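Entry:
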Amino acid sequence: MLYRTQLRSAVVAALQAANTLAGQKVYVPRDFPTTPPGMPLILVQTPMERKQGRGPLGAPQFLTTATVAVNARVAGATAGQVESLLDTLCDQIENAVLTDYAVLRMAQQVLAVETEIEVTGQQREHLGEAWMRFDFEYPEVFEPSINQPLINVRGAVSATVGTASAPPVEIDFSIPQE
């Protein structure tokens, strides 16, 4: 399973355990519309990941930054009520994610948290959405797969005593194949 998927699952679990205004209505992305009777609710996804190389030697190594996006949705009678609900829910989300040990131990550091809020009026109800993006950084190493059998090991040993050195002795081990 992709590490960013595991990170997303840990954030969902933290939000469900936090008893936010959304309660257990914390979902991974879904493609059908949400309606006010089902709000407040929270949607969690990992829309972005960036890998930055850590050097040219050995197995590919990266410092990876995964963005976990949290979308909170609320409904209310007035724009002020909706904004207040969003402020409370954003505070609960931020505290739940940034204090959960299972989430924090998965990352080397939290690079950034961004929050954006929008409130709209539609007929008698007002709707509000908040988008919160948490950037988590963690190291990744990709070990090459070995798809050829090991058939021979070769080594060289040299000895130095004081200023005198002996010529290297080469050792060759064949590994029997079954």
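The longest strand covers residues 125-141.
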